[in-house]
Amino acid sequence: MDTVDASELGRWPYCDLAHLGHIELLTPKPEESLRFFTEVMGLSVSGQEGDSVYLRGWDDYEFHTLKLTAAPKPGLGHLAFRVRSLEALRRRVRVLEALGLGEGWTEDLGHGPAYRFRTPDGHRMEVYWETRWYEPTEATRPALKNQASRFPARGANLRRLDHVNLLASDVKAMRLFLEEALGMKVTEQIVFTGGEEQGVWVTCNNKTYDLAVTKDHLGAKGRLHHLTYAVDSREEVLRAADICLEYGVPIETGPHKHAIQQTFFLYVYEPGGNRFEIACPGARLLLAPDWRSIVWNEEERKRGQAWGLQTIPTFHTYGTPPVEEA
């Protein structure tokens, strides 16, 4: 492929990436994790290969949005973004190669060729264009043809993959990488007194964010904070809390409302040890083409959530893999 000079990175167009496509989640308890995501959360299995099971929410259009893989430790296998065209894929690969962060091409059960790379903090990511659309069976065929599959009426009935939150030792380096190498747009930030960046929320479409990166206060690199699926209403988040209670799922915090991005949330732990969020993003969309990032300062962040109980300490320290194994 053609090379690109590093000085040209900032001129590559916003919106080469279309959306967050899927995440590979590692679990040391694959059977228990699978039961959690299917019976308790309501995801559906669309395929299986080797040590991995492929799952999706009932209105995810792609073959899978979650790849659940057996592994010795919990954490992130990789996360992937679908791009808007083949040319967009080529453009992003040229940039990543110029930065020296590429690991080469790979394919998977749910999509065609994907270019794999590492972030400056060590998280593994992919970008791809060719994808496999989900094809409903007779049992999952919806009544409305503009819906990906039938409403499952099972567990929390998660609708779609919403976002992923990564932990990073250097939030600023990650922000610059996401802006310059992937062409993502910053929508909100946390910047403390003295200019230290504590968190950033970025998007590649009209959602307010596809990816969040927050400070790893334990100094580790490449860890996962949580992944999130969306439901339609706040009431469904409350119902998910009842369902988790019935199944003995550990609830970490919530339901409450975030100040940043205004998401109504519930955080739980799946059996493998990864933090998982059930959320209602509300009707917030990023429509302004000249949106200016909202910056939250240290004093504002000390106030905690928009409303609800004070954030518990583990929310700021726990990630996967656990820090002693990171």
In short:
With about 325 residues, the chain is of the alpha/beta class. The protein has 6 helices and 17 strands.
Protein architecture, described:
The chain has 326 residues and is of the alpha/beta class. Helix content is 18%, strand content 35%. It contains six helices and 17 strands. It has helices at residues 30-40, 86-99, 171-180, 234-247, 298-302, 314-317; strands spanning 17-27, 44-49, 52-56, 66-70, 75-83, 102-108, 111-118, 124-128, 160-168, 185-191, 197-203, 211-215, 224-230, 251-257, 264-269, 275-280, 294-296. The strands form two sheets. Strands 14-15-16-13-9-12-11-10-17 form a nine-stranded mixed beta sheet. Strands 2-3-4-1-5-8-7-6 form an eight-stranded mixed beta sheet, with helices on one face. The chain starts with 16 loop residues before the first strand and ends in a 9-residue tail after the last helix. The model has no long low-confidence stretch (mean pLDDT 92).
Structural class: alpha/beta
Uncertain runs with pLDDT below 50, 5 residues or more?
none
Which strand-content bin applies to the residues?
Answer: 25-35%
Please state the overall shape, judged from the principal axes of the Cα atoms.
globular
Strand line-up in the sheet with most strands: 14-15-16-13-9-12-11-10-17
Quaternary = single chain
Series of secondary-structure elements, N-terminal to C-terminal: EHEEEEHEEEEHEEEEHEEEEHH
Rounded to an integer in angstroms, the radius of gyration calculated over CA atoms is: 19 Å
The overall average pLDDT, rounded, is 92
Number of strands: 17
Main beta sheet = 9 strands, mixed
Q: Helical residue percent? A: 10-25%
DSSP helical segment count: 6
The N- and C-terminal alpha carbons lie at a distance of: 35 Å
